[in-house]
Sequence to fold (463 residues):
Amino acid sequence: MYKMSDNHFNYDIYPIVIPVGKKTDIHIRPLGGRPEFEPGKAYKTILCALEEGHPMHFPATADFRESMTVCNENGGFTVTAEFKKEEEYFIRFEDENGKRINQFSVYAVEKDLVGRYPFIGDLHMHTNLSDGRQTPEVVAANYRRHGYDFTVISDHRRYYPSLRAINCYKDVPLEFNIVPGEEVHMPPVYGRTNDVHIVNFGGEYSINALTEGASHDEVGDGEEYRSLYGKCPDFMSYEEYQKKMQALADGETVPENVDVIPYTVCKWIFGEIKKANGLGIFAHPTWRANVYHVPEAFTDYLFEKQDFDAFEVLGGENYFEHNGFQTVRYYEERAKGRHFPIVGSTDSHSSYPTNENAYICSTIIFSPENERTALISSVKDFYSVAVDTISKEFRLVGENRFVRYGCFLLKHFFPRHDELCYEEGRLMKQYVTGTDEEKKEAADMLGAVNGRMKKQREKYFAF
Fold:
């Protein structure tokens, strides 16, 4: 997914993420490139902090520490270091004439990030069970192959496709997390519609299926199609639903330029997602569906009330007005003192590279584990950053410290991470689409490679 530098091909550096204040051995091992260092020879080693300036110009802040390090018998080094604050650091090697030979990057993090690993994924996408192109199980495999740690199947008006994807892989070990979910679209209330798109990420039951609709029509009313654990609230008839929404609307007071029925339905949906222990995501208000998908006045009010759990600041389209305007809006809301979590998603309808929007956006969640409730809690606690990969050079949106840390990870960790994801994703697709012999081979190989991602995290993060 992300461009690797020559150093990634020529050297293995580990760990690359280290707690602030923890003395740590950092290993630098050559991987078969042109030899740069002579075993047994001592080299000038400079440990320097990226953000503190050069000592020649900014002696008050600069953090440059010099020492001599002997190259080991393998042509590499072990450097012991302790870092003073959260930022990127260079380990730079020079010859006897002061000429730089090479340098390597590591990152120090404060204690709140220690034990939180970066998991990258998508919180909004579709399959051929609504308006997408591939089956749920193939979509999951394709996104794992692309480098994702988690994804949700969030089909329009349907929760059961996400359960189908989960169940397809229940008999094989995976380190990929398929999260249940749906895009929620409730029916009109006495002819008045709510077209605000809301994603139920990780909810334990379907919000769409709380009343009659597509899900009931297609697979029936069984709780096994409406919930993750086979348990969910009773559903209402369409008439009961309309009466309920109208009664709630009658009790709402909204500004004159805000339509009360759509707002009432939004508020109710977000509340139900919370009850289902999910993450309620307000999606793509500046999507140009003829005109803005959501009127600016309505978006203003949603930001003021903040009934949602997270804002989809990136995702869905590749024209600037979509993500660009939402990004500006996010930072303006922050300037007003409004703080809410953000995510980035593809909102993709095809998981093949031939779809130019297939991999445009994603989210890095800093979480203790790649598990549904941990991911949701981490987003709600503001440990997420949105990633824009529309153009050749990636962009990130979020809090300053997470944007900086995320940039480092996209350059120095995720290229290695993606190599492991690729093979598991390829085997996943073979497992669900191959011949009987190929399926058995894929199942055996998935068992053999299981656990590699965990070992990789433990190697590169000194937690």
Q: What stands out?
A: The CA atoms of residues 184 and 322 lie 21 Å apart. The two ends are 25 Å apart (CA to CA). The chain is about 35% helix and 20% strand. The mean pLDDT is 96.
